[in-house]
Design goal:
Elements lengths: L2 H15 L2 E5 L1 H6 L5 H4 L1 H6 L10 H11 L5 H11 L7 H6 L6 E4 L5 H8 L4 E4 L14 E5 L14 H5 L1 H5 L2 H11 L1 E5 L8 H12 L6 E6 L9 H17 L5 E6 L2 H17 L1 E7 L11 H17 L3 E4 L5 H16 L4 H4 E3 L13 H14 L2 E6 L1 E4 L2 E4 L1 H12 L3 E5 L4 H10 L16 H7 L6 H17 L3
Parallel strand pairs: 1-2, 1-5, 2-4, 3-4, 5-6, 6-7, 8-9, 8-11, 9-10, 11-14
Antiparallel strand pairs: 12-13
Length: 484
């Protein structure tokens, strides 16, 4: 297994187990257009009559500016506010990162890119930017952004000068044991780390201090150096060798490096992670009216198929997604929970994602927009969507459920694998017809539908319920293995 495949496999497990965390480095800020430390402090260097390119200790440069101002930090804070305070577009890599089921984000960056990415994704979050923040009560379900070196929205909190670093353990020391605890219990992904990031040494030092020569295993995505326009070949090769030594040296800290040539590869890696996580989630979509629908396969058979797939999801270690559709939802969820209980893996917070549709009542008006929002969320979460039945009553008539068709369209747009059990009739039968012969891929890691032969087998109305159940279980396993 190569490094990238190992990373996808192991970090996916950590994400699904709720034991993953991320550390966002300076590279993410650079990708958004924010200045690096040298660019940030260039004006400060000019004021001190120093060339910033000649200064190796940039924290000292900030310290000298503060000393020249009689101990006032206002000039340094003014520069940070001017350069970091402006809002720049959130990089696509961060947009993808916050869509993963991560709850813990660490950074030494001052900007608010992580917070803005979480807000744009509709995820609740809390920021811990000072030592006092660490004692505030956790909000269940909210992501936490740990800003070890402060934040631009509170300039008094930023760590930038020699004094700030030397007095870090006194002023902000509570961050370090918390980081060390999470480095012990979680698998970290370091994104945007770079050889030139002056804050990396402090984080790596915390790992080394806590774990010595046997650190836990983590991952780091690092971009290889690019030759500058005016850079000589010899200078570039020297810088490239330095980067290679640095990447190998990270192994001492338990960091396995996944090297990329371009920033776009980071997006691809994180998107692959998202697909890998989604592939482990199964949405059973569909509905069946009660009392039984005359002329169709029958509620008893549909119930058996839904229960069998709920049980299969539990046995395969999948997370079940459900909108609690009539009969289909209760049958699949019930069998899923029974199987989990019998196996002793009673982990509902991690294994069940339920989004029951609110129903109109005497004091509640429910719009279709609310239902569409729930369906869109489930489509984005799910790697495979199974369609069973899909009928509803319209006065005295039985008609195909338009909600199931909407779920099909949203799941298709989200790139999910679409698996209709056409033999159950209703919308599922029509979806099977639409997919048969369609241009959507039916093989490989980006497959979105079964082969035509499999669709036909799942739509066989003459097959026994037992045969349909066996075929449906096999189709779910096949979908799960496509990305392996």
């Amino acid at each position: 297994m190569n490094v990238r495949m190992r990373f996808i496999a192991e970090y996916t497990e950590a994400l699904l187990d709720g034991t993953a965390a991320a550390f966002v480095g300076a590279g993410a800020s650079a990708a958004a257009g924010y200045p690096d430390w040298k660019q940030l402090l260039r004006d400060i260097g000019d004021e001190l009559e120093l060339r910033v390119d000649d200064v190796t200790d940039l924290a000292a440069l900030a310290q000298w500016s503060i000393q020249k101002a009689g101990g006032s930090r206002s000039r340094v804070q003014q520069v940070i506010d001017r350069e970091i305070g402006r809002q720049r577009p959130v990089p696509s890599s961060l947009q993808t990162l916050v869509r993963l089921p991560l709850r813990h984000y660490w950074t030494t960056n001052y900007d608010e890119l992580i917070e803005r990415a979480l807000a744009e994704a509709g995820r609740p979050y809390r920021v811990r930017a000072t030592q006092a923040d660490l004692s505030t009560r956790h909000v269940p379900g909210a992501a936490v952004v740990y800003k070890m070196h402060g934040t631009v929205s509170d300039l008094s909190s930023v760590v930038i000068s020699t004094d700030d670093y030397e007095l870090y353990r006194r002023e902000r020391g509570a961050f370090l044991p918390l980081l060390q605890a999470q480095l012990t219990s979680r698998t970290f992904l370091f994104v945007g780390m770079s050889l030139t990031d002056p804050n990396v040494r402090q984080v790596l030092g915390a790992i080394r201090h806590a774990f010595g020569t046997s650190p836990p295993q983590h991952f780091a995505i690092a971009r290889a150096p690019k030759r500058g326009e005016d850079e000589s070949e010899a200078a570039f090769q020297a810088r490239e060798r330095q980067h290679q030594y640095w990447a190998k040296d990270l192994m001492r800290y338990g960091l396995t490096v996944i090297e990329v040539a371009e920033y776009g590869e980071i997006d691809d890696l994180l998107a692959a992670l998202g697909r890998s996580v989604a592939r482990r989630r199964l949405w059973i979509s569909g509905s069946w009216p009660w009392p039984d629908a005359e002329g169709e396969r029958g509620a008893d058979t549909v119930d058996r198929i839904a229960r069998a797939l709920g049980q299969t999801a539990a046995e395969l270690g999948l997370t079940l997604v459900s909108g609690n559709g009539q009969l289909i939802g209760s049958s699949s969820v019930g069998a899923f929970l029974e199987t989990l209980q019998q196996s002793g893996a009673w982990d509902l917070e991690r294994r069940l994602i339920a989004r029951p549709f609110p129903q109109p009542g005497p004091t509640l008006n429910v719009g279709r927009d609310q239902w569409t929002a729930l369906r869109r969320e489930m489509a984005g979460l799910s790697g495979t969507v199974v369609f069973i039945g899909g009928l509803k009553r319209d006065d005295s008539r039985l008609v195909e459920a338009d909600g199931v068709f909407e779920e099909y369209e949203l799941a298709r747009a989200a790139g999910a694998y679409l698996l209709p059990i056409g033999a159950t009739g209703g919308a599922a039968a029509e979806i099977a017809k639409r997919l048969h012969g369609s241009p959507l891929p039916s093989d490989g890691p980006r497959a979105q539908r079964p082969s035509d032969a499999m669709l036909e087998a799942l739509a066989d109305r003459d097959a026994s319920p037992e045969s349909i159940i066996d075929r449906a279980k096999g189709a779910v396993r096949h979908a799960l293995n496509l990305g392996a």
